[in-house]
């Protein structure tokens, strides 16, 4: 028996809870450290990078969920650890007001717990989805769960922002406690009984993790897809830290206008994901490979447009171009996630969690590397280039090249089968 639509939405609630807690640390607490505490912006940046770096443990969590006989406990346990990290992160901000060293120590522990919690809960959740979702519903399942995560991020950011004024440390702790406690409670209610109802529990196994990981890395499909995930996600995240500075320095955007620019991009991502879910699954049009390739090439095209607008300066139609980039980014991202879910069941049986963990680790590493590489490249290019527009534009064109390379790799490693097919990769070992 496979997951019904209601069960898929219930698992999407878990993704929504993950997004709700993580956005507190990457947005609200980031702002408090930089503005209220007047700390260097690099500090929260390094803490966020730590949470990404810790997610290199995702293959371990996936392997444990494969061999432990129960994925539900890892989802709930991971969410509890994530919630504890969120509360500690808020506490760390408070402690920094009195003692920077003590607050930093608490914050480092908190962001490490956040990385572990996201890795354990997120990887096990995706493994359960990959194992129990019917092939024809995988693109839709990926769309539903990711749209719900985006909704969780947006609603939490807006709600917390409204209730946090006027800011006090006690109010911050109370709000974070409500969000994290509610996330754990919702996760328990959402996931309880689903695994038993679809008979998707893995068989307990006594095997060392290194042996299990070697088994998966020996599979050509899994290995090639890992490289594809790292390359494409590096391109995806490369503009994350430089797009708003580009808008401000080159086009004269105010901070408020830059925030609106980010909203336009995220709105485009939402639309692109929705498009794939409706057209690929509802209408059965196009393979996941076709959507991935179209998303990558479209993203490359829009990055070229964004770079070309630089010399025009203020008044150029940057917002529509960025919204278009978001649409193609969303198409690529959700189709790639659907492909992950399809491929997770290929090869050695009962290793869905290990494969999802391997690709999740590649994605997390690419997120950290891509963002830092884009920012560093701009820092290097600005003194060398004739203008800020050409410096940023050069980096955007490099990113576009990575997207083209990702599209070519997707055409090589992914099959032409329809989105509802059971396999997304070419036959092989």
Give the amount of beta strand, in percent. Answer: under 5%
CATH level 4 superfamily of the largest domain: MFS general substrate transporter like domains
Main β sheet profile:
none
Order of helices and strands: HHHHHHHHHHHHHHHH
Q: Would you report the number of β strands?
A: 0
> What global shape is seen?
globular
Low-confidence residue ranges:
418-429
Q: Number of folding domains?
A: 2
What structural class should be given to the helix and strand makeup? mainly alpha
Tally of alpha and pi helices: 16
Annotated CATH topology of the largest domain: Growth Hormone, Chain: A
Just give the CATH class of the largest domain.
Mainly Alpha
Radius of gyration: 21 Å
* Mean pLDDT over the full residue set: 83
Describe the structure.
The chain contains 16 helices and no strands. It has helices spanning 5-36, 42-54, 58-67, 72-96, 100-132, 138-163, 169-191, 194-198, 209-217, 220-237, 243-251, 255-282, 288-309, 318-343, 352-384, 388-413. With 429 residues, it is mainly α. Helix 4 runs antiparallel to helix 5 (100-132), helix 6 runs antiparallel to helix 12 (255-282) and helix 10 (220-237) runs antiparallel to helix 14. The radius of gyration is 21 Å and the shape is globular. It has two domains: 1-206, Up-down Bundle (Growth Hormone, Chain: A); 212-429, MFS general substrate transporter like domains (Growth Hormone, Chain: A, Up-down Bundle), CATH 1.20.1250.20.
């Amino acid at each position: 028996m496979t997951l019904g639509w209601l069960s898929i939405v219930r698992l999407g609630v878990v993704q929504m809870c993950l997004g709700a807690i993580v956005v507190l640390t990457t947005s609200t607490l980031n702002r408090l450290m930089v503005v209220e505490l007047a700390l260097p912006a690099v500090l929260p940046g390094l803490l966020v990078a730590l949470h990404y770096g810790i997610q290199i443990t995702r293959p371990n969590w996936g392997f444990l969920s494969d061999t432990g006989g129960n994925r539900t406990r890892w989802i709930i346990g991971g969410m509890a650890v994530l919630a504890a990290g969120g509360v500690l992160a808020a506490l760390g901000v408070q402690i920094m007001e009195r003692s920077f060293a003590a607050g930093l120590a608490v914050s480092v522990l908190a962001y490490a717990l956040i990385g572990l919690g996201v890795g354990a809960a997120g990887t096990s959740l995706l493994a359960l989805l990959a194992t129990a979702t019917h092939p024809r519903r995988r693109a839709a399942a990926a769309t539903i769960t990711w749209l719900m995560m985006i909704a969780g991020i947006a609603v939490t950011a807006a709600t917390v922002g409204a209730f946090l004024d006027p800011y006090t440390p006690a109010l911050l702790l109370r709000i974070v406690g409500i969000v994290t406690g509610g996330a754990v409670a919702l996760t328990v209610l959402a996931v309880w009984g689903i695994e038993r109802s679809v008979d998707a529990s893995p068989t307990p196994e006594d095997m060392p993790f290194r042996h299990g990981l070697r088994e998966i890395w020996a599979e050509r499909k899994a290995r090639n897809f890992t490289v594809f995930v790292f390359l494409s996600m590096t391109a995806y995240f490369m503009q994350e830290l430089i797009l708003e500075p580009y808008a401000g320095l080159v086009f004269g955007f105010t901070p408020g206008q830059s925030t609106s620019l980010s909203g336009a991009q995220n709105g485009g991502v939402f639309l692109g994901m929705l498009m794939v879910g409706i057209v690929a699954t509802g209408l059965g049009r196009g393979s996941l490979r076709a959507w991935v390739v179209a998303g990558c090439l479209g993203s490359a095209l829009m990055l070229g447009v964004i770079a070309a607008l630089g010399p025009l300066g203020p008044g150029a139609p940057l917002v529509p171009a960025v919204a278009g980039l978001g649409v193609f980014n969303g198409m690529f991202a959700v189709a790639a996630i659907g492909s992950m879910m399809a491929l997770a069941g290929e090869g050695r049986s009962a290793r869905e969690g290990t494969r999802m963990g391997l690709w999740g680790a590649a994605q997390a590493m690419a997120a950290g590397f891509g963002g830092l590489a884009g920012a560093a490249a701009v820092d290097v290019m600005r003194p060398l280039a004739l203008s800020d527009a050409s410096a940023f534009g050069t980096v955007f064109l490099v990113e576009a090249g990575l997207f083209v390379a990702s599209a070519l790799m997707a055409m090589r490693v992914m099959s032409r089968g329809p989105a509802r097919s059971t396999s997304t990769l070419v036959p092989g070992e």
